[in-house]
Amino acid sequence: MNGENLAKARELLRHFPHESSALIPILHLVEQEFEYIPDAEVHVIADLMGITAAYVESVLTFYSLFHRQPTGKYLIQVCRGLSCQLMGADELSSFLYEGLGVQRNGTTPDGMFTVEAVECVALCKNAPAVQINLEFYPNMTREKLEAFLDKAREEVPTDA
Amino acid sequence: MPETRLLFKDIDVPGIDRIDVYGQHGGYQSLRKAVLDMTPEAVLAEVMASNLRGRGGAGFPTGRKWSFLPKDGRTRYLVCNADESEPGTCKDQEIIYRHPHLLIEGVAASAYAIGAEHAFIYLRGEFKVGYQILERAIAEARGKGYLGDDVLGSGRRIDITLYLGAGAYICGEETALLNSLEGKRGHPRLKPPFPAMVGLYGMPTVVNNVETLSAVVPILAMGGAAYARLGTEKSTGTKLFSVSGPVRNPGNFEVELGKVTLRELVFDLAGGPLEGREIKGIIPGGSSVPILPPEKLDVALDYEALAAAGTMLGSGGVIVLDDRSCVVKSTLRLMEFYRHESCGFCTPCREGTVWLGQVLERIEAGLGQANDLDLLRSLSRNIEGRTFCPLGEAAIAVLQSGLETYRDEYQAHIDQGRCPLGEAAR
Ligand SMILES: Cc1cc2nc3c(=O)[nH]c(=O)nc-3n(C[C@H](O)[C@H](O)[C@H](O)COP(=O)(O)O)c2cc1C
Ligand code: SF4
Ligand code: FES
Questions:
Q1: Among B64, B89, B173, B393, which is best to mutate for testing ligand 1, by the most ligand atoms less than 8 A from CB?
Q2: Which of A138, B81, B161, B375 is least surrounded by CB atoms within 10 angstroms?
């Protein structure tokens, strides 16, 4: 963790009535900084909290928002919940898989995009729903996704 | 058929997520009344009188749940369940994202009633933006003295801590939620002891849903007895229903319980099926309840009537299937969900959802075998009543009911070796 996050992590240890509650918030800090949870950080957290790395690992692997492999700059999560499936979610995910040349949960070689098919994200009335870096994109269409991808690519110079 | 808006009365007011606007529309009057003019027991009495039932799925009477807390002087906690992960349900999300002060006021007033100084809101990890919205709203409320060490000069301390989960449906189950809040894997706990006795950090704890705690605000404003006059005798007040799937006007609708039928909700409020389509079936209470065929849509929306119709009100997530929706494919999709979300603690659920998924996969792929429907039935029976928590039972609700109602559609997949709806099926 960088210095700022380490300081935040130390604060989190005192934020809850019991220190144990800080584990998941600290994992969120790490996931945010690295876009996944690197092995080395599992040990940093274990030392910080005085617990074993195996325990940290057992907790983090229970939760699907923590990644053990690097993810892209943009984490695109297509909801495949039933309401979204009924409204054409499959077409959205195939479009992304084909257009970006990735498989489910895959990341593009340039590290820009990760595409996941996730369970209901509680935006069923705006199906099909997508989350990008955990922001809601309601009533998604192929066109809107295309526009998003174009814009994201423009913002980052290709040699980056 | 109009809505009856108590929770959503001001939801369309621009800026209602800011404390000033919320205040101009009567916001925090219920908390003020509770903390300054009423004893905690009097607040509990109003909630008892309202007959409010938990809106998280099980429908347990809220006042009764609060009254189970032991009077032994131990620290008590209130935990708001904002995990909302039941497929088809997106009502709590709308409260959190658009009407955060309603929830904060409800949590604070409820914490006062049960004698908790410290309340938690456990949000599903995907509600990261909702977390930020609530964070800002809580800071505003502290600034106005509605939260903090001395709420409105009453000498009472009430504060709210936010907690962001990390993606696990099972953490909506209250004891799994408590484990997760303690920094553990989200496995459910054995009950009893119930959270009222041994909850968060081993202390007496009340867990309530977002909508339940929000409803405490109008209950205190209008009085429990007036709230109880809405709805039916056993299903009082209003309830939010999320209507999703192929309808013209999907959305969240607040209606008086028992006064509106499922047909009225779906046709009048949600606009009915898409152009040229017909409704094939409706799952009325989130994905964990039995599916209803079109013949049963005149059922009233209340706990008792839906139970009598063979299903449940559940979370109020109404998922509509039309004639282009394949029942097998939809059921498979749900089974994949439960298979993925099974916490793995007990065998019938962990293994059963895998086996059921495999059989459904082959039927959907046109490779179903002659005895597969019987196999589905017997696998389901081996889950029914044999799991540690209700997730196992939830996983087979649509399957078991659908095998009866849509038997021909299942059989056609096996006989024809493909989906009878063809390529366009969803
Ligand atoms: C698998 C499972 C998932 C659940 N998910 C939720 C949920 O997301 N939100 C919720 O409020 N209750 C959920 N519940 C119900 C809770 O266990 C609990 O009954 C509820 O939070 C109590 O609040 P209430 O009395 O206000 O409804 C779930 C239950 C089970 C078994
Ligand atoms: S029924 Fe499923 S989710 Fe519940 S405890 Fe057993 S394995 Fe876990
Ligand atoms: S099913 Fe996609 S948001 Fe609920």
A1: B173
A2: A138
Do residues A24 and A54 both lie within one domain? yes
Q: How far is it, in rounded angstroms, from Cα B110 to Cα B34?
A: 9
Interface check for A68 against chain B (CB to CB < 8 A): the answer is: no
Provide DSSP, B328-368. HHHHHHHHHHHHHH--SSSHHHHHHHHHHHHHHHHHHTT--
Residue that is last in its domain, among A38, A62, A86: A62
Task: Name chain A contacts of B184, Cβ cutoff 8 Å.
Answer: 20, 59
What lines the ligand 3 site, CB under 6 Å? A 79, 81-84, 120-124, 127, 129; B 87
The answer as to whether A145 is a domain residue is yes
User: Which alpha helices (DSSP H) does chain A contain, by range?
Assistant: 3-15, 23-34, 39-49, 53-60, 82-86, 89-100, 142-155
pLDDT digit string (tens) for chain B, length 426 residues: 689 999 999 999 999 999 999 999 999 999 999 999 999 999 999 999 999 999 999 999 999 999 999 999 999 999 999 999 999 999 999 999 999 999 999 999 999 999 999 999 999 999 999 999 999 999 999 999 999 999 999 999 999 999 999 999 999 999 999 999 999 999 999 999 999 999 999 999 999 999 999 999 999 999 999 999 999 999 999 999 999 999 999 999 999 999 999 999 999 999 999 999 999 999 999 999 999 999 999 999 999 999 999 999 999 999 999 999 999 999 999 999 999 999 999 999 999 999 999 999 999 999 999 999 999 999 999 999 999 999 999 999 999 999 999 999 999 999 999 999 988 788
Show the domain range for A50: 3-62
Are A82 and A141 in the same domain? yes
When CB atoms are compared, the residue of A16, A85, A125 closest to B161 is A16
In a domain, A117, yes or no: yes
Query: pTM higher than 0.95, yes or no?
Result: yes
Residue A81 shares a structural domain with residue A44: no
Furthest-apart CA atoms within chain B: distance in Å: 73
In 3D space, the residue among B204, B206, B225, B193 whose CA is nearest the CA of residue B47 turns out to be B225
Question: Using a 6 Å CB cutoff, which residues line ligand 1?
Answer: B 54-58, 60, 81, 83-86, 170, 172-174, 207-209, 212, 389-391, 394
Residue type at B236? T
ipTM of the complex: 0.96
- Domains of chain B by start residue, with CATH: 19-228 (3.40.50.11540), 238-322 (3.10.20.600), 327-424 (1.20.1440.230)
Residues A146 and A85 in one domain: yes
